Amino acid sequence: MDRFPIVFLIATLLTLVSAARDDFLRLPSEASRFFQPPATDQATRWAILIAGSNGYWNYRHQSDVCHAYQLLRKGGLKEENIVVFMYDDIAFNEENPRPGVIINSPHGNDVYEGVPKDYVGDDVNVNNFFAAILGNKSALTGGSGKVVDSGPNDHIFIYYTDHGGPGVLGMPTSPYLYASDLIEVLKKKHASGTYKSLVFYLEACESGSIFEGLLPEGLNIYATTAANAKESSWGTYCPGEYPSPPPEYETCLGDLYSVSWMEDSDMHNLRTETLHQQYELVKQRTINGNGMYGSHVMQFGDIELSMNNLFLYLGSNPANDNFTFVDKNSLVPPSKAVNQRDADLVHFWDKFRKAPVGSSRKIVAEKQLLEAMSHRMHIDDSMKLVGKLLFGIEKGSELLSSIRPAGQPLVDDWDCLKTLVRTFETHCGSLSQYGMKHMRSFANFCNAGIQKEQMAEASAQACVSIPATPWSSLHRGFSA
Ligand SMILES: *[C@@H]1O[C@H](CO)[C@@H](O)[C@H](O)[C@H]1NC(C)=O
Ligand SMILES: *[C@@H]1O[C@H](CO)[C@@H](O)[C@H](O)[C@H]1NC(C)=O
Hints:
Layout: H1 3-22, E1 45-51, H2 59-75, E2 82-85, H3 126-134, E3 155-161, E4 164-165, E5 168-169, E6 177-178, H4 179-191, E7 197-203, H5 208-211, E8 221-225, E9 234-236, E10 254-255, H6 256-267, H7 275-287, E11 298-301, H8 311-314, E12 338-339, H9 343-354, H10 360-391, H11 393-401, H12 414-428, H13 432-435, H14 439-447, H15 452-462
Parallel strand pairs: 1-2, 1-3, 3-7, 7-8
Antiparallel strand pairs: 4-5, 5-6, 8-11, 9-10, 9-12
Helix pairs in contact: 2-6, 6-7, 9-10, 10-11, 10-15, 12-14, 12-15
Bound molecules: 2-acetamido-2-deoxy-beta-D-glucopyranose (NAG) (2 copies).
One 2-acetamido-2-deoxy-beta-D-glucopyranose binds next to loops.
């Protein structure tokens, strides 16, 4: 007689054990003391999407982010779980041929509508980005207050697209973001025990340098980057390319790695496609036939996480349930692509070329083109001169460009790197988005033991004054 309740209890416990494994059924309160830790709520998917640039010539970064937002919403993520950082100066920019609309591919639909303005304008900054990752509302300045308020079972997806350079990522505001600080924040997030796994997709020039030799295993983080540590990443759907944007667009619509992962995700059932399958496919498309116009997609961190399905991070659009992954890239590779660093010149040139002779638009475009060019020459020449002043003619040029063996971080002393960059900018003006390409030279100076005083003296000699172009303004760059 007494045995029935016991059998019943055992059966109930077995059901509860398997339920606990599924992680979403709650235990009846009387039974919960048998299980440590108690079962928790279903995992939540969180995302941070960030475009690190502004300016119409950088249309593609904010366009990428808007596209990513639409993708995640179609996948089933809630608006409250997606934190968006974008300067928001594109949709209603006077250069935009379709006011209020942003597209991410030549025949693409509007991706701007409905994107939340969590952090726009100057609220797109390093401090708020870190606060959002850490879920620390009291560290925020401005913005909607949305942060990744995640729990131990949750999955986090971070997607960053912008210009970069060795060891740094751009921001529309000053200062830029240093790799070492980002890695510290990720370690802190891990230590707080507020996620199960985190996937980081990163598009920027030299983006491999953000994680190489820096991101340890064991943080449950899997990262892929658009490029290795020593090459550019590429804009795509640019004027003059095939496929090209509609003729009225004088700017690139997307970035090659970014549109590769998003267009793949748009098509497939992400319940069955793994991160690794996507990595292989994106790698193949981004290398672009191994020619001049492509880069090497890299992976870092806990590689075994890439066996997970994309569904865990991106959800999946129910309309794609019947489109399972095929190991072949059906997407058209671009005929060529534009080096991210030259995409601003492509914009100014296209604008200049198309403007009617004698129009004020032509005059403005010419001025913009010349300013961008002269900034580049100023930065390149100043760096060369600083190298020579510090190390002599031969050793100087070697130190400017030497690259550490693969697997090693860019620099050992990140504070030195920050100090030398700041010192240079004080005398020579902002590096701005183009000048980030010289970060490796600064890192090499640090690795060779150059001190702030030496840098100050060399910079003062190399740069008699700060040029008056907007690119050199100290409101851009690292100083702040
Ligand atoms: C959150 O940010 C504030 C302000 O920067 C800081 O004082 C505090 O320690 C942070 N909290 C956590 C849990 O890191
Ligand atoms: C997928 O295929 C099944 C069987 O053919 C069909 O019933 C279902 O409607 C399809 N789903 C979608 C989203 O097209």
